[in-house]
Task: inverse folding
């Protein structure tokens, strides 16, 4: 009998919350439509206006103060960690590192939630930047290769090798280093017969460029018992 009353009470509570959530969604849709109408009017009156600078400021979560994070400190810690790491870091490793670095073991669960929300905001900004760069890639040297390389690394991190196969084909650019990056990705995909010639051509091109520069300066590339490469010795 007690179980029946509990279930009935939970069902009634669920119904009330569902109605309240529906009302909030309707209200949010109405506000969004009003904002859109106002933005359209502003664009008509002043086409040069930049609505991005008018975006509402996000209130800083008080959880940052509770967890002894200064404003922006968590984001800086994440950036420093990723910048110094030669490979992508999983979320759990980032959380463990920050918890240990700030000695926040007692509040680990709250710290994990805060760090995950910060990572989500960072990812949203990255996606927005990728969208902007994609639109203007034709005007920026090596931009398309940079974007393809980024997307290939993200696909690799997610073990999405099908997507990685697609992106690796576009890892190209004016800088010869892109050939080496493409070769490394091809090797990881097991396409050794394609990656090895690319790597070899890059190394050969580097030797040729270095030899040509040394010849123009009239200097030596190397010396020692194994022999030296001097002006006129390069066979390329």
Result:
């Amino acid at each position: 009998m007690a179980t029946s009353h509990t279930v009935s009470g939970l069902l009634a509570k669920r119904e009330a919350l569902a109605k309240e959530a529906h009302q909030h969604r309707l209200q949010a849709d109405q506000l969004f439509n009003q904002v859109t109408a106002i933005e359209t009017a502003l664009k008509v009156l002043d086409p040069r206006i930049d609505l991005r600078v008018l975006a509402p400021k996000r209130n800083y979560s008080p959880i940052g103060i509770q967890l002894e994070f200064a404003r922006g400190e968590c984001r800086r810690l994440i950036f420093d960690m990723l910048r110094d790491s030669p490979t992508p870091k999983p979320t759990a490793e980032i959380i463990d590192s920050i918890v240990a670095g700030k000695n926040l073991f007692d509040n680990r669960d709250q710290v994990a939630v805060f760090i995950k929300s910060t990572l989500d905001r960072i990812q949203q900004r990255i996606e927005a930047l990728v969208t902007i760069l994609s639109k203007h890639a034709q005007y920026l040297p090596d931009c398309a290769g940079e974007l393809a390389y980024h997307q290939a690394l993200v696909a690799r991190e997610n073990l999405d090798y099908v997507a990685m196969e697609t992106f690796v084909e576009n890892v190209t650019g004016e800088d010869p280093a892109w050939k080496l990056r493409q070769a490394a990705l091809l090797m990881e995909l097991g396409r050794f017969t394609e990656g090895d010639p690319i790597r070899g051509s890059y190394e050969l091109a580097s030797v040729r460029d270095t030899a040509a520069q040394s010849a123009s300066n009239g200097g030596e590339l190397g010396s020692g018992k194994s022999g030296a490469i001097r002006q006129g010795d390069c066979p390329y």
